[in-house]
Amino acid sequence: MRICQSCGGRYEPIGADGVRYFHACPPQRRVRVRRGATELLVALEEVLDTDVQLEELDVERPNRRNENVRRDPDGVVRPIAEGDGTTDEAA
Amino acid sequence: MDPTDYRELVRHVAYEQAKLSSSSFFFDGQDRIRLRTFGSVASVILALEGRFLGADGRLQAFAETHTPSSDRTVATSLYPFGEGFLLNVSFRATTGTPRVGQVFAILDIVRGLGTIIQPLAVLFQGYVTDTQTFGWPGSPVRASIDGPGVLRSITGTDPAVDTEISETVPTNARWRPLAIAFTFVTGAAAATREVALTFSDGTTVFARVPAGTSQIISLTRLYSAFHQADRLVNVADLTIVFPLPRIDLQGGFVIATVTTARNALDNFGAPQLLVEEWIED
What we know:
The structure holds two protein chains of two kinds. By secondary structure, chain A is mainly β. Chain A has strands spanning 2-4, 10-11, 28-35, 38-42, 52-59, 66-71, 77-81, 86-88. Chain A has two domains: 1-25 and 64-91, no CATH class; 26-60, no CATH class. In chain A, 0% of the residues lie in helices and 44% in strands. In chain A, the strands form three sheets. Chain A has a three-stranded antiparallel beta sheet, with no helix packed on it. In chain A, strand 6 (66-71) and strand 7 (77-81) form a beta hairpin. Chain A is elongated. Chain A starts with a strand and ends with a strand. Helices cover 6% and strands 53% of the residues of chain B. Chain B has one helix at 3-20; strands at residues 25-28, 31-39, 45-54, 59-66, 74-80, 83-95, 103-113, 116-127, 134-136, 150-155, 166-168, 173-185, 193-200, 205-215, 220-226, 232-234, 239-243, 254-260, 267-268, 272-279. Classes of the chains: A mainly beta, B mainly beta. Chains A and B meet through strand 2 and strand 6 of A and strand 10, strand 11 and strand 18 of B.
């Protein structure tokens, strides 16, 4: 079992049918708030009681891992984004 | 008659017959057979076998191997031939057990090398398996999304706490989701959560299917969506059933959950997807 260091998701890199599984991190939930005269995008747990909540939305992680591949201009096939890498879960 | 002369006569006749045949392909020495494959399963080796009638009238049997990729990207092999006639070629998987939908092959005649390759004729195009032998002449040229794909049961990523399910269709794959099941455990915080499935192109949602039933504090529910399902809630089985639309998804498209009033302690389990899959470059 592999653990994504970008999103904490756990997955098997090879499925039960022998086909590779390509993990891609899900988005993060953020809240757009008005804090004083400023609009901010914050995590739910960072919302203050004095904030005016405008909307909840999902935004792509800045360190998103996407193991799906693409062929770069040099012809080499690489993952789209490494993110923060992975670790293997202890057996 | 001298036996050597007789054999020479047979070779000459065969070469002349091949010129008139509509099912043989003349090579002038500059042409090559190119085999391109797109594979989604590892440990597969293809055998390319056939017969070539050389300019000297001698019949040559050939047998080559080719290893497809396992990430659905293209793997290419070029096989040079001298002057003569390609009489037939066939191929199959000799290692591994790929099913229809897992290894797509394109066999063509080309001229040139490197980045300057000119395709001249397609001999075969279709899925290769270990039990069915295809070849030229005879086998049809088919698109990769023709006919049935391979059925796959996929365990997706088990998301961390306070994270939605999100599954991305792999590069060069086309998916038709047939069923999706996942558990949702709500934490010890009062809120009325409502789960929906969304389908997007990776950026913009183009379909959203609400489960149609809310889930409150400290509950575990199994959500099960499949084609032509009727919405129902089975209290004893703790299952919420809702319909899944028939939608085909390209590589990079995303199936995800979106939950209103989701709490930081809420947790989804790994989704289990049943999909029909094709190679699509």
